[in-house]
Amino acid sequence: MDADVNDYMKMCLEANGYDRNLPIEQRLEFDFRKSAKCALDYRVTMYMEENKATADFLKANPHFRYPGGSNGNLSPCWGRDKRYTADGRC
Q: Which pTM was predicted?
């Protein structure tokens, strides 16, 4: 994640009316649920953007989906148990 957690939590708190200048007793009476939902929505948006970027990259570069694929070492037998193959084929 690119953004710092504290930055977007502060942004969500301020958006929902949290006042840092109040005494601690009054600040603890604040309803933090809306701020938490705001932060969760922001994190989900960031994760979705990151997953979309990864999916776009893998769509453009399918050889990166497999170990050793980036080196040109694509094995058709990768991930299969060679003990149970017929005549050594995959």
A: 0.61
Closest CA to 39 of 80, 81, 10, 2: 10
Distances (CA, A) of 31 to 13, 16, 39: 10, 9, 14
In terms of pLDDT, which residue wins out, 76 or 49?
Answer: 49
How many CB atoms sit inside 10 A of residue 39's CB? 18
Residue from 34, 44, 45, 43 nearest 12 by CA: 34
Higher pLDDT, 1 or 46: 46
Question: Do the Cβ atoms of 70 and 84 come closer than 8 Å?
Answer: no
Cα separations in angstroms, 68 against 49, 50, 64, 73, 74: 26, 23, 8, 5, 6
Using CA atoms of 21, 17, 5, 43 in order, give the dihedral in degrees to the nearest 10: 170
